[in-house]
Structures are given as C-alpha cells and as structure tokens.
Model the fold of this input.
Amino acid sequence: MLKKIIMVLICSSFSVAAANIADTHTEMSGCDACHVNSEPSSDMVHELQQCQSCHGAMKDIAGDNHKIHDGVIGCNDCHIAHKDVKPDALCSQCH
Done:
C-alpha cells in the first residue's frame, strides 16, 4: 500500500495542471465523460447531469455560492469548461 501511495505522489509531482475544466476531464475520461458522442447537447442538460453524477447536486456541494444558485443556474454558467475563466470573475455578469 505504501508503494502505491509513494508512486501516486511521485507521478503527480511531475504532472502539469490542466488549463481548463475540459482539459482536466478529457485527460481523465475523454470527451464522452461529459458529452454524448463527444458533442455538446443543444440544451446542456446531459452535461449538467454528468457534472452531478460525479460531483453531486449543487445544494450538496460545500459553499454558499452553490446552495443559493441551486435550481437557478447550471454548473457551466460559472464553470465554463472550454475556457480558462475563474468562476469568481463571472459574478458581475448577473450581479
């Protein structure tokens, strides 16, 4: 067990952080982890369901920002997957 932990630490120390959310998820599972046939859905409902299947519902995620936005907006309204944008920078678009 200790060998596995050491290997994970060594390997992760050499990894480079992904530029955006899409890069991170693509590295993990490919485009189909979020999309159907690697293409975005027209209404993004499938993608939202994929977010929730791994990360849980907004109301259950830590932090007040997730709870107050539950049912009002979707994950990708703040976490823009294919752009390198910090969620906090998007608050002024609505507020």
